[in-house]
Write a structure and sequence with these properties.
With 259 residues, this protein is of the alpha+beta class. Helix content is 27%, strand content 30%. The chain has seven helices and 13 strands. Strands 1, 2, 3, 5, 6, 7, 10 and 11 form an eight-stranded mixed sheet that branches. Strands 4-13-12-8-9 form a five-stranded mixed sheet, with no helix packed on it. Helix 5 packs across helix 7. The radius of gyration is 17 Å and the shape is globular.
Length: 259
């Protein structure tokens, strides 16, 4: 794909998010590849940084076998987290700042030191992490009606929107994170459940994949980075008036209200 087309798609996605007006899927009409889509994502990453936003971490998506089969891929994807995406647990998220929000519960890693690929392993991630904590990722799409392809979601910053981190901080090696169980509640009723093994067998595996993937771009995961490694269950639709709580055994809770 030529650079002018990439810039046009990046600008279209930026306007869609800013104005909250969805656009049609971009990949089908432009023959966009995953590699093209990452370049488009980076155009808007650079645009945000130039406007004063700070990159605070990354997200990993498509970390379940079911989701990979649905998109016809054999590896996850990733997006960037910015300072203005972070929300406090127990706080509020304004629905009018989003388009078609959904919530996914995750186990977030916060790094004490840099992780630089290639050849980063699960054990390297656990050794580099300062702590883990329950998290909620609020995903959203700038593509009309969530009719996304792999390339669409990558170009759209992996459909990221907001992140809520729990207050509890746990050692990443205190418990077997693959066996940690989670219950997701919506308006006080349990609606989903999952375990840490839902994301590539262990929540540290997507972080290792990400560090190695970023090495292909000459990048690393910096000390202090927040990494959300993928959903422990399906995404749940949310609207104004909804209250969401994720309870993760041993690790604590995280919650958000939609207003």
């Amino acid at each position: 794909m030529d650079s002018s087309t990439m810039k046009e798609i990046a600008a279209r996605l930026e306007r869609a998010e800013r104005d909250r007006v969805a656009v049609d899927p971009q990949a089908a009409s432009s023959a966009m590849t995953a590699a093209d889509a990452y370049r488009i994502q980076m155009l808007n990453v650079d645009r945000r940084v130039a406007s004063g936003r700070k990159i605070v971490g990354r997200k990993v998506g498509l970390t379940s076998i079911a989701m990979q089969k649905m998109f016809g891929v054999n590896e996850p994807d990733f997006g960037h987290l910015f300072d203005n995406m972070m929300l406090a647990s127990g706080g509020e998220c304004r629905v009018d700042s989003l388009m078609l929000p959904r919530v996914e519960p995750e186990i977030a890693f916060v790094l004490a030191r840099e992780l630089r690929g290639p050849s980063v392993t699960r054990e390297d991630v656990l050794a580099a992490a300062e702590y883990v904590t329950p998290a909620l990722e609020i995903i959203d799409t700038r593509i009309r009606d969530w009719k996304i392809t792999l390339a669409d979601t990558i170009a759209d910053n992996a459909s990221s929107a907001r992140v809520v981190l729990g207050a509890e901080k746990s050692s990443p090696t205190a418990y077997d994170l693959a066996k940690v169980s989670m219950t997701l509640e919506k308006n006080g009723a349990a609606v989903e459940s999952g375990v840490g093994a839902a994301v590539l067998g262990h929540p540290a595996e997507p972080v290792a994949w990400l560090a190695n993937k970023l090495a292909e771009f000459g990048q690393a995961l910096a000390a202090g980075s927040i990494i959300i490694p993928g959903a422990l269950c399906r995404a749940v639709d949310v609207a104004a008036g909804n209250s969401i709580v994720a309870r993760v055994d041993h690790l604590g809770t995280v919650s958000i209200r939609f207003v």
